[in-house]
Specification:
It is a single chain. This protein has 228 residues and is α+β, with helices and mostly antiparallel strands. It has one domain: Immunoglobulins (Immunoglobulin-like). 11% of the residues lie in helices and 25% in strands. The protein contains three helices and 13 strands; from the N terminus they run ααβββββββββββαββ. The protein has helices at 18-34, 36-39, 211-214, and strands at 98-102, 106-108, 111-120, 126-128, 133-137, 148-150, 164-166, 171-179, 188-189, 192-196, 204-207, 215-216, 219-221. Strands 1, 2, 3, 6, 8 and 13 form a six-stranded mixed sheet that branches. Strand 10 and strand 11 (204-207) form a beta hairpin. It is globular, with a radius of gyration of 32 Å. The model is unreliable at 1-85 (pLDDT under 50).
């Protein structure tokens, strides 16, 4: 609406006849109705979006359920993928339908362990048979030369993979352990662990907080089991 409506200003005695008044009222009505989009803020009055196995070491000391925290390290692209419909209500459920969580680090005589939980957050059964995928990362998010061993450790006994078709909403468990004192040999300082339910699946990155926790020798993990 660039111009203003014609006022119908006369050149004679400044008077308007009845016909002129009717024409003026009609012109103003048309003009105002054409400007309605400018007078009403965008979106107002329109509907908005709808809100959318037993272990050798004291497994009873591991928190249940395991709390978790996941971050994206500076300078690293997010590994998040489009989410899938879930039966667990998790907004972070990846397209594979399974997600991994890491618990708090538990100490024992220079050894460290964390409980891992694999949850079927999708709406279809998911076959599980194997070990988690784990890598240690530096502060830039790059992999560190830390060996990862499937098998038992001081902190837990590995009873081998358990073939399970994991139903939606159900979980399986594993234990990840390492030595974190100089007596363990050459240690590498890591800033985070990248963990996926299995090789090739969507990983999550979990920060390691505390100087003693960040010192790593070799990582030892048990297979996914239905019992802790």
């Amino acid at each position: 609406m660039r111009g203003r409506a014609d006022t119908g200003r006369g050149t004679g005695h400044g008077r308007r006849g009845p016909l002129a008044a009717v024409l003026l009222a009609g012109a103003l009505g048309l003009t105002l109705s054409g400007c309605a989009g400018f007078l009403v803020p965008a979106g107002e009055g329109e509907p908005g979006p709808t809100p959318s196995g037993p272990y050798a070491v004291h497994p009873d000391k591991l928190p249940t359920p395991f709390p978790s925290a996941s971050v994206v390290l500076p300078g690293r692209p997010s590994t998040a993928r489009p989410t899938a419909p879930t039966r667990t209500g998790r907004a972070d459920c990846p397209s594979s339908g399974v997600v991994v969580d890491m618990g708090e680090v538990e100490p024992a005589l220079g050894h460290r362990a964390v409980g891992l939980t694999l949850t079927n957050c999708g709406d279809k059964p998911y076959p599980v048979d194997g070990y988690p995928s784990v890598r240690a990362l530096d502060e830039a998010g790059d992999p560190l030369p830390v060996k990862v061993n499937p098998g038992s450790s001081y902190m837990g006994t590995d009873r081998g993979p358990q073939q399970v078709v994991l139903k939606p909403g159900r979980s399986m468990y594993a234990l990840l352990a390492w030595v974190s004192t100089p007596t363990g040999g050459d240690l590498v300082e890591g800033d985070a662990l990248e963990i996926a339910p299995a090789p090739g699946l969507e990983p999550r990155v979990f920060p390691l907080e505390g100087n003693d926790v960040r010192l790593l020798d070799e990582l030892n993990m048990t297979a996914w089991r239905t019992t802790r």
